[in-house]
Amino acid sequence: MWTDWALHLATAPNKQLDLARQAQQNWTNWLAFLAKGCPSDPDEQPAQPKPTDRRFKNPAWNTPPYSAWAQAFLLTEQWVDNATSNIPGLTREHDAAMTFLARQMLDAAAPGNFLATNPEALKRTAETGGQNLIEGAFHAFADTQTALKRTRTKPTKLVGQDVAVTPGKVVFRNHLMELIQYAPATDTVHREPILIVPAWIMKYYILDLSPDNSMIRYLTEQGFTVFAISWRNPGPEDADVGMRDYLQQGPMTALDHICATTGTDKVHATGYCLGGTLLSIAAAQMARDGDKRLASLTLLAAQTDFTEAGELMLFINESQISVLEDVMAEQGCLEAGQMMSAFQMLRSNDLIWSRMIRRYLMGQPDAEMNDLMSWNADSTRMPARMHSEYLRQMFLNNDLATGRYHVGGRAVSLRDIRAPIFAVGTETDHIAPWKSVFKIHDLARSDVTFTLTNGGHNAGVVSKPGHNRRHHRIHTIRNDENTLTPEDWFDTAPLYQGSWWPAWSAWLADRAGDKTTPPKMPGALEDAPGTYVKME
Fold first, then answer.
1. I need a labelling partner for 178 at 20 to 30 A (CA). Which of 79, 206, 234, 339 fits?
2. Distance (Å, rounded) from C-alpha 62 to C-alpha 68?
3. Are the beta carbons of 170 and 526 closer than 8 angstroms?
4. How do beta strands 526-527 and 189-190 pair?
5. Does some domain include residue 158?
6. Which domain holds residue 109?
């Protein structure tokens, strides 16, 4: 890859000239900035950090000499971005990989990462007489010990006591999942229930965090009967469990049980992340086979077309998958820590360097975990076969979007889906970029209501009403209307302040039938949240 980039750059004289001109201009601008005494006015600074870059938010970065270092870094960052992107003849994959690797190296060299060039750390050192550095050394030693022991951060919120406390019963269990039916919170409920299919990359209770931050509790309070799948945490013995096992033992079995015990013939299914991808496969299979039990489909940060699947694609190619398959062949599964490392690299500033600055330079302990942070520490494993199939058939080959994915020996097509769809993307999602999630418009022949909310992959979805600084856009494109590009949709969709949950609840209420008495919970096995969610 490095050689490929270097060879293509060496044979691109216009690009070389452009880089030389930019370097000269950046150097001139930086010297002029120094000559002016490093003014703090942004209009007189040669470069500004990106809106999402929080490294230089402290006002001290606008005072010399720190502003000089910050501007030098930002100008270098601009030049390197140009040097590693849009190289004539370089493949898109190598272009993206070079840009990513260069950014990782630059992030490591940011002035805020070093005591001598970090104004906040120097100020704290002066205030504490160096105590922060002593505390930082202890933190570094403790982190090293943790890494050597290969232990991971434990969640601080107890499942069933602090989180996942919405009342309910486990009403069905098989090898891969427990099905939870939640107790009604209203005297009457909509006739047609909701089935939630979470991702099995993490525990299901991201949608049932603390009582005031629970999507599941919110839905029950709006008068819906809610069922949710809680996936088993697989081990090496599950090495041969594949995607189709998750499909049949997960949503398909859950639908059978719900319809048999409640008497309904219509269910509103909701899938989150990988669970949404699995649910879209189920919907396509059911549409192919004439199974009309799905009354609607809600996809939360879920991709169905993986051509623009974001920075995760940097880790996914034939050679990378082959290496990973060899590792999983020995282990039987993908360990949680191996997966989390890739996610951390995608947000190294927020998840790696900012933490190191806080712990090692500032001498501050980690903040107490909130419910979402605790959930994030409660990670799971993935079966070897399933993960290999997912990477190859979805990310690498894009079989689902192109109609090449087979279930039961026959291909399924998302274009067969007719049920109305409510899809949610989040503005800063680094796992399922919203423009990738948006592609469902071009695949299903359905009315699609798309919502774009601020926040990332998790915090954007877990967006309770009343949460400060939340907003969303929402717009419906009917099946008989012309589709829009993501950019045109963004310009068309009105902006609303607040959580998107009420809009979704109203959308469901319009389709979930009249109110009736809540269904019973026959054959309850144990209280929610059940056993599988507590497996380590």
1. 339
2. 8
3. yes
4. unpaired
5. no
6. 2-113
Is residue 382 a part of any domain in this protein? no
Segment 54-58 long-range contacts (CB within 8 Å, at least 24 positions apart): 54/349, 54/350, 54/354, 55/110, 55/112, 55/349, 55/354, 56/112, 58/119, 58/120
Please indicate, yes or no, whether residues 106 and 180 belong to a single structural domain of this protein. no
Say if residue 518 is preceded by a cis peptide, omega within 30 of 0: no
pTM for this model (two decimals) = 0.90
Q: What is the pLDDT of residues 77-103, one digit of tens each?
A: 999 999 999 999 998 888 888 998 899
Element holding 473 (H helix, E strand): strand 471-477
Looking at the fold, whether 95 and 198 belong to one and the same domain comes out as: no
3-state secondary structure of 468: coil
Angle between helices 119-128 and 131-149 (to 10 degrees): 110
Residue 402 contacts by C-beta under 8 Å, 6 or more apart in sequence? none
Q: What is the pLDDT of residues 199-235, one digit of tens each?
A: 998 899 999 999 999 999 999 999 999 999 999 999 9
- Residue 59 shares a structural domain with residue 179: no
Is the pLDDT at 150 greater than 70? The verdict is no
Q: 275: which DSSP letter?
A: H
Same domain, 499 and 412: yes
Q: What CATH code is carried by the domain that includes residue 250?
A: 3.40.50.1820
What are the catalytic residues?
Answer: 273
